[in-house]
Amino acid sequence: MVHTKNPNYIHHSNSKVADSMREIVFGMEDGMVSTLGAITGIAGATFDPFTTVLAGLVIISVESISMGVGEFLSSKSRKEIDQRILHEEKEEIRDFPEEERKELLGMFIADGWPQDVAKKMVQVTSQDKELMLREMAYRELKIVPDKMTNPLKNGFIMLFSYIIGGGIPLSPYFFLEMKGAIICSIVITLIALFALGVFTSHFSKRNPIKAGFEMFALATFAAVVGYVVGKIADVSLGPK
C-alpha cells in the first residue's frame, strides 16, 4: 500500500494560517469585543455619529499598535531567552561532554529505547555537536531551534488582526443612522465572533457549531461584563 500525504492533515498542509492562529484569533476577538464595548457605550451616551466614529478609529489605532508592539516584544523576549538557554546548553556540551552524554542516555531510555540501542544513539549523536545540541534542546529544554517564533511577523499579524476585528463593529456607523447602527454593530459582531470560532474548527477539526458557539459565548460574556462594569462606574463615579 502506497502512503500518500493526506491534505486534510494539518502537519501535511504547511499552513501559514495555522502557524499564526494564536495571533489571528487573539487579535480579531479582542478587536471585536473591545471596540464593540467601547463604541456602543459612546454611541448610547452621545448619539453622535461623528464622535462615535472618531472614538472608534482612535481606539482601533491605539489598541492595534499596542497589541502589535506587545506581541512583538513578548515574542522577542521569549526568543532571546530560548537563544540564551541554547547558548548555555552549548557551553555545557563543550565543557562537560561526558555528563551531557549521560543525560541524553537517560532521556533516550526514559522515552522507551532499549539500553543497548540508546547507547548506540548517544555514541552517534555525540560525534556531531550540532546534532547533540538539537537533541538536548528538544529532549531536555523542550526547545526546537528551527521552529523559533518570528517576533516581527507575530507583531504584524496581531496588529492587522486587531484592525480587522475592530473594523467590524465600527463599520455600520459609516452607513446607518445611530439607532440602526448600534443594533447592526452588535448583530454583525456576534455573527463574526461565531464565524471566527467556525473558522478555527477548520484547522482543529472540532465540531464547527460547537467551536463557533464557544467563541460566541465567551466573547459575549466578556463584552457584557465590560458593559456592566462601565455602567456601574458611570453611576457610581459619574457627575451627580
TrEMBL record:
<feature type="transmembrane region" description="Helical">
    <location>
        <begin position="53"/>
        <end position="74"/>
    </location>
</feature>
<keyword id="KW-0812">Transmembrane</keyword>
<feature type="transmembrane region" description="Helical">
    <location>
        <begin position="24"/>
        <end position="47"/>
    </location>
</feature>
<dbReference type="InterPro" id="IPR008217">
    <property type="entry name" value="Ccc1_fam"/>
</dbReference>
<dbReference type="GO" id="GO:0012505">
    <property type="term" value="C:endomembrane system"/>
</dbReference>
<dbReference type="GO" id="GO:0030026">
    <property type="term" value="P:intracellular manganese ion homeostasis"/>
</dbReference>
<feature type="transmembrane region" description="Helical">
    <location>
        <begin position="211"/>
        <end position="230"/>
    </location>
</feature>
<protein>
    <recommendedName>
        <fullName>Iron transporter</fullName>
    </recommendedName>
</protein>
<feature type="transmembrane region" description="Helical">
    <location>
        <begin position="156"/>
        <end position="174"/>
    </location>
</feature>
<keyword id="KW-0472">Membrane</keyword>
<keyword id="KW-1133">Transmembrane helix</keyword>
<dbReference type="GO" id="GO:0005384">
    <property type="term" value="F:manganese ion transmembrane transporter activity"/>
</dbReference>
<feature type="transmembrane region" description="Helical">
    <location>
        <begin position="180"/>
        <end position="199"/>
    </location>
</feature>
<dbReference type="Pfam" id="PF01988">
    <property type="entry name" value="VIT1"/>
</dbReference>
